[in-house]
Amino acid sequence: MRSARNSRGGKVGVCGIRTSWNTIGDGEFFCEECGGDRNYRRRTGRRRFAVLGIPVLPRGCTGPVVECAACHTHFGVEVLERPTTARFSAMLRDGVHTVALALLCAGGTDSRAVLDRAVSAVRAAGYADCTAVQLVDLVEALAADTGRFMPEVNPEGTLLAIEIHEALEPLTPHLAPSGRESILLDAARIALADGAYSPNEMEVLGTVGNALGLAPDDTVRLIASARKVP
Length: 230
Known about the structure:
It is built from seven helices and five strands, in the order βββββααααααα. The chain has helices at 85-107, 112-125, 132-144, 159-168, 177-192, 199-211, 216-226, and strands at 2-5, 11-31, 36-51, 54-68, 74-75. Strand 4 (54-68) and strand 5 form a beta hairpin. Helix 1 (85-107) runs antiparallel to helix 6 (199-211). It is elongated. Mean pLDDT is 85; it is low at 1-10 and 147-157.
């Protein structure tokens, strides 16, 4: 923008490009600049050539952009693909809960040690009020629908495996590699709470590793390493 000095020595804009913004939507997102969840405005703009602050000639459109309502930083709309802190916490909580139920379906609920380990994992993920009774009731409800169990002839085609993928795949891109490994290790420790892995538990753990985007060799390594932890 070209400028000139006024009688007081200050600069005044003579000509340049000005953008007028129009809000087309709003919501909540994770602002990287603020470092937390904030409200946003989704905006489009019209660029105009202005002389002495007066718009004269149109110069096309710009945007859409996402503007933080707090710091007013502009971001590309792809920033909305990142979940808010609250949404991420809910995704993690639901993912761990689904994995715990899958392992209880595969290995049974007779072992108190397994139940205690599952409750501990689910509580740590965010379900602070989770109890063993609640998990057993859910497993029994799932048992009533036999299609949710993993039949030995075709475990990949079961609804239970599908639910694991549906719970973990949206979460996976937002987890660091150590976070993905941690979920699988916690799942393995649930299965090991009453002794060695059963074939069905191994099947579930393999599905979990796949849903987390872990390489097959890494999944095998982590499942084996869980045996070495007291």
